Amino acid sequence: MAISIAAETPLQDDVRAMVADLNATMLPLTPREFQFQLTVEQMADPSLTTFVARDETGRHVGMASLKDHGGGLGEVKRMFTLPEVRGQRVGSLLLQRLEQLAREKGISRLVLETGEAPGFEAAYRVYERGGFTVCGAVLDYPDSGFSRFYEKKIVP
């Protein structure tokens, strides 16, 4: 499967559908108060860049956003691939594109928060294969036991 990845506005129907699918997937896995979901409107903030992965027909198959916190710190947000393409390295390609943008922006450290519960194993594999390592709580996320945190140093 040929995949193209480009920065796109999150304010489009197919991204809204992926965000809804992501939210529906996460809701039963973690208590709601420990889910830190951005809406597509929040994803449209200028501090975020959203990448959409599309197959050869132009159909959306994944997404990921990079939030630039300034001071060399970036955060991976709203990472998701459709269930039918999991295992086909779409998540890895999205992470590579986020890292490329991070380098272009002078970001030297990427962090992310994900769930800490059964059901997140595939996400852990993508992040760990991508060179991310588990770390302590990042940014203003609570260290609740319901989150797992990752970081990666970005080499220019």
Name its key features.
156 residues; alpha+beta; seven-stranded mixed β-sheet; 7 strands; 28% helix; globular
Secondary structure topology:
Blueprint: E1 4-7, H1 13-26, H2 40-43, E2 48-54, E3 60-70, E4 73-81, H3 90-105, E5 109-115, H4 121-129, E6 133-135, E7 147-153
Parallel strand pairs: 4-5
Antiparallel strand pairs: 1-2, 2-3, 3-4, 5-7, 6-7
Unreliable stretches (pLDDT < 50, length at least 5) are none
Q: What is the string of SSEs from the N terminus onward?
A: EHHEEEHEHEE
Number of strands: 7
Main structural class? alpha+beta
Distance between the termini: 30 Å
The pLDDT mean sits at 93
How much helical structure, as a percent, in the residues? 25-40%
Rg, please? 15 Å
The major pleated sheet works out as:
7 strands, mixed
Number of helices: 4
| Neighbour order of strands in the largest sheet | 1-2-3-4-5-7-6
The backbone outline, from C-alpha atoms, is globular
Beta strand %: 25-35%
